[in-house]
Amino acid sequence: MVETSIVVELVDGRHRARLRPGHLRPLLMSADVHGCTVGLVATGALLLGGDDVRIRVDVGPGARLDLRDIAGTVAHDGRGVPSRWDVEVTVGAGGALRWGGEPFVVADGALVSRSLRVEASGSAQVSIRETLVLGRSGEIGGRLANRSEALVNGATVYREDLDLLDPEHRSAPGMLGGARVMDSLLQLGPPHSTEGATRTAGAARTAQHERDGLHEVAGLGGRSVCDTFLLVGGAGSLTRFLGDDLAPSLLHQMLA
After folding, report:
1. Could you tell me which of 158, 149, 228 has the C-alpha nearest to residue 196?
2. 182 with 104: CB under 8 angstroms?
3. Of the candidates 250, 192, 244, 251, which has an alpha carbon nearest to the alpha carbon of residue 220?
4. What is this structure's pTM?
5. Residue 251: left (phi > 0), alpha (psi -120 to 50), or beta?
């Protein structure tokens, strides 16, 4: 297992990046006094049974990183062999990370363990969008265990363990209802933890309601739902869209 590593630092007023490829290859797109932009592209077919993908992102104090997925990922039928996808993120005081991830599709037959751990310090700002799609067109989707955790100044402000291993349990209360798409935007630090984040999320929900005609539980009548939740201590927010299709989601507008 070779870890994909992205380290961005602010040195003498300019951004410098140290990149190491693994299953994914980080490509430097730009670096100047304003920030650093890095693209992530797969070095081979992903995600297959037995694959163990590890991604490490480290943004130093005062540094700014715009991280972009070049394409989405499909977890393929592993024929009973599990695969892993683990991401660890650290953002130093005054640093900023913006990561607009592309869809992660769990195809029929896949068995995936997926995790995200974010550590932010001081006034660090973090915006990470993750999009999970259960199955390709016409599929139910494979089995997925998804864990997310965020810490600010060493204190846990968000933790979620989502067990989607049994397709029959996905429609249970507190789960996904009839939705096959879960689009999430995790935001840490100012101004995302203040009224501005709530106001932006509210605008997104209003537009969502106007598009759908109603704000209903996902899976009922093909409707979708989008809500924002404040994290512990007002350290940030989590906005989540659930629906049958990704097209109605407006989370990309919040990340822009």
Report:
1. 228
2. no
3. 244
4. 0.89
5. alpha
